[in-house]
């Protein structure tokens, strides 16, 4: 970061429907997993910053929960998150996957019609679709919104990501870095640990149960080469508790083993994980519980 006069920096918000690959994109750009991923919509709940430091540029990405119309107080919080990540952005990445219809995006285009900075259309998951499908989708979208540029990528395989970073870099203003070079996210380690555990629940348990799961890390203690983490998995019904624990503890064992592996990779140390499952009845509908867990609409 020696030549400060040529230095560029700025905020880049990642928007898109649930499940289009926003978090996968951010993790793969950073080459560091800071935000969780699953094959179910609405995995991400809180905006999270991921910082990419390049020789003459710092890009601060903001991963957001998927664009959707809220149905409960938690959903209200989620939609407030993606809206709140817009005013500070210097550039917006509008992620889509090929084959979707542009008609349903009109309400989101309205939100950005006065956005004064470039909006890039990012067509993700191109590894899964035929060229014709990709082209047809691009044609439809480019007729409905004045995108500054269109970039085809596969967040999963990495195709197109270098080109994307290059384009973003050229669009950011001349500005000194916002964050220290060593910092890769604005999220506390304790919260990332909780999210890693939540990811394993989202990846192993189906139907509606994951939507009502919250993980709170109660204690984290570091001793020489070992980190002890005690976390509580909250579910919204007693019947869900039984499923998360599984027969003779089989499910919680899978979740614990998978989470520990990722946590050890994240911290670079051995991890002892102490998991508890508790019921917090219908918490998604309770503003006081939501507030206590940081789902506060400012
Ligand atoms: N084949 C393929 N799968 C992808 C790609 N990008 C993401 N995925 C998969 O798509 C699913 C959703 O990815 P996420 O990164 O969680 O999507 P998201 O947009 O962050 O979703 P929400 O947080 O729920 O809004 C996961 O199963 C990913 O592995 C890609 O480029 N190709
Ligand atoms: Mg996500």
Distance between the termini: 35 Å
The total count of helices amounts to 9
Please state the structural category. alpha/beta
What is the overall pLDDT average?
Answer: 94
| Rg calc | 20 Å
**Biggest beta sheet attributes:** 6 strands, mixed
The CATH topology of the largest domain is given as Rossmann fold
> CATH homologous superfamily of the largest domain - what is it?
P-loop containing nucleotide triphosphate hydrolases
The helix/strand series, from N terminus to C terminus, equals EHEEHEHEHEHHEEHHEH
Helix-strand blueprint:
Blueprint: E1 8-16, H1 22-30, E2 48-54, E3 57-63, H2 73-84, E4 91-96, H3 106-111, E5 119-123, H4 131-144, E6 149-152, H5 161-171, H6 189-204, E7 214-223, E8 226-235, H7 238-245, H8 250-267, E9 270-279, H9 287-292
Parallel strand pairs: 1-3, 1-4, 4-5, 5-6, 8-9
Antiparallel strand pairs: 2-3, 7-8
Q: What's the short story on this structure?
A:
The protein has 298 residues and is an alpha/beta fold. 34% of the residues lie in helices and 23% in strands. It binds guanosine-5'-triphosphate and magnesium ion.
Question: Explain this structure to me?
Answer:
This protein is an alpha/beta fold and 298 residues long. It has two domains: 4-171, P-loop containing nucleotide triphosphate hydrolases (Rossmann fold); 189-292, GMP Synthetase, Chain A, domain 3 (2-Layer Sandwich). It is 34% helix and 23% strand. The protein is built from nine helices and nine strands. The chain has helices at residues 22-30, 73-84, 106-111, 131-144, 161-171, 189-204, 238-245, 250-267, 287-292, and strands at 8-16, 48-54, 57-63, 91-96, 119-123, 149-152, 214-223, 226-235, 270-279. The strands form two sheets. The chain has a six-stranded mixed sheet with strand order 2-3-1-4-5-6, with helices on both faces. A hairpin with a 2-residue loop joins strand 7 (214-223) and strand 8 (226-235). Helix 6 (189-204) runs antiparallel to helix 8 (250-267). The longest helix is centred in the last third of the chain and has 18 residues, at 250-267. 35% of the residues are buried. The mean pLDDT is 94. The structure holds guanosine-5'-triphosphate (GTP) and magnesium ion (MG). Guanosine-5'-triphosphate (GTP) binds at residues 16, 18-24, 37-39, 41-44, 65-66, 124-125, 127-128, 154-156. The site of magnesium ion has 5 residues, from helix 1.
